[in-house]
């Protein structure tokens, strides 16, 4: 019965790729079509803030499966393919480019995307988010050209990026709204230790900091962050606010800063 069925998986991240694997392992013998917006094989994101960011891991190692696996398991992987609409009653998906497709069963595994910083200047050049492999490549390059980075938000992955930036011998400022790092996750005692650890590693950590705007003399380029709270740090003209100069800025891209769509953390 399965052989006549088409199972379409929308989203070629780890959930989509593992779902395709599970279907084959469980004996589904119909057609599996895995549709992914990104131009690369499905990959795992945790190395983007650790080993891969630090150049300690090759791209091939972050893939969920090597390319031949999809051929060997008869999974039609279509990269650079964006699904623009789903018609559940007609069992059809529309694509940004190309003909619509039909399905018998469909899995939505479109993950998460960064919640963008909503302050003036956040769209300036040199403000980065970290979600996709190409974001990581840009960041890697930025680490080779910058001497200073400001990181907005302090979730787990972002702190891994702070550690990677320190390892790349950059000056790192982390702006965190809370009173301690990861307080709601770790509890006070562990959060105090964790906060002290990052400071001991040379991270300039500003707690209770709220970003008012991203600044720069050239309206297209970000070179600083203006804070809107009482942090007692002043550098540069601040019009009553506080400023952190930066060559590169990183917006928080996961944890509480992420719009959730499926299994995304
Ligand atoms: C830097 C970083 C570090 C992380 N570290 C950890 C960690 O240490 N531990 C942990 O548990 N989690 C970590 N996470 C979170 C973890 O990566 C996510 O939970 C996981 O990626 C979710 O997998 P997913 O397949 O559900 O979604 P995603 O990985 O987001 O994949 C969804 C895919 O669907 C595609 N897509 C979206 N919309 C469409 C569409 N309309 N058409 C076609 N394709 C579409 C997207 O392009 C994407 O490729 C980290 C995340 C990041 C960014």
Structural class: alpha/beta
- The global form is elongated
Bound molecules: flavin-adenine dinucleotide
Report the CATH C-level class of the largest domain.
Alpha Beta
Estimated helix fraction: 10-25%
How many DSSP helices? 7
What is the spatial order of strands in the main beta sheet?
9-16-10-11-12
CATH architecture of the largest domain: 3-Layer(bba) Sandwich
Give the mean pLDDT.
86
* Biggest sheet details: 5 strands, parallel
CATH superfamily of the largest domain: FAD/NAD(P)-binding domain
From the alpha carbons, calculate the radius of gyration and give it in angstroms.
Answer: 21 Å
- Termini distance? 36 Å
> Which fold name is given in CATH as the topology of the largest domain?
FAD/NAD(P)-binding domain
Strand content: 25-35%
> Total strand count, please?
17
Count of folded domains? 2
User: What is the H/E string?
Assistant: EHEHHEEEEEEEHEHEHHEEEEEE
**Contiguous runs where pLDDT drops below 50 for at least 5 residues:** 230-242, 252-265
Give a nutshell description of this structure.
The chain is α/β, with parallel strands linked by helices and 265 residues long.
Q: What tags apply to this protein structure?
A:
single chain, 265 residues, alpha/beta, FAD/NAD(P)-binding domain, 2 domains, four-stranded parallel beta sheet, 26% strand, elongated, disordered C terminus, binds flavin-adenine dinucleotide
């Amino acid at each position: 019965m399965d052989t006549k069925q088409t199972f379409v998986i929308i989203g070629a991240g780890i959930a989509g790729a593992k779902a395709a694997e599970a279907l084959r392992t469980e004996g589904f013998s119909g057609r599996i079509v895995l549709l992914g917006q990104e131009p690369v094989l499905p990959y795992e994101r945790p190395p983007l803030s650790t080993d891969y960011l630090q150049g300690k891991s090759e791209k091939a190692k972050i893939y969920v499966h090597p390319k031949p696996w999809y051929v060997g398991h008869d999974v039609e992987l279509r990269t650079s393919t964006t699904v623009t609409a789903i018609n559940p009653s007609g069992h059809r998906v529309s694509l940004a480019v190309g003909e619509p497709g039909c399905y018998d069963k469909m899995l939505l595994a479109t993950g998460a995307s960064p919640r963008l910083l909503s302050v003036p200047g956040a769209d300036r050049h040199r403000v980065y988010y970290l979600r996709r492999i190409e974001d990581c490549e840009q960041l890697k390059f930025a680490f080779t050209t910058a001497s200073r980075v400001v990181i907005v938000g302090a979730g787990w992955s972002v702190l891994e990026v702070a550690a990677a930036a320190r390892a790349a011998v950059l000056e790192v400022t982390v702006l965190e709204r809370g009173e301690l790092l990861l307080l709601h996750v770790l509890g006070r005692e562990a959060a105090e230790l964790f906060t002290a650890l990052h400071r001991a590693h040379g991270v300039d950590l500003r707690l209770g900091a709220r970003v008012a705007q991203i600044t720069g003399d050239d309206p297209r380029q970000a070179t600083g962050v203006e804070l809107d709270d009482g942090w007692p740090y002043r550098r540069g003209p601040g019009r009553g606010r506080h400023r952190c100069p930066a060559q590169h800025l990183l917006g928080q891209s996961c944890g509480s800063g992420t719009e959730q769509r499926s299994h995304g953390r």
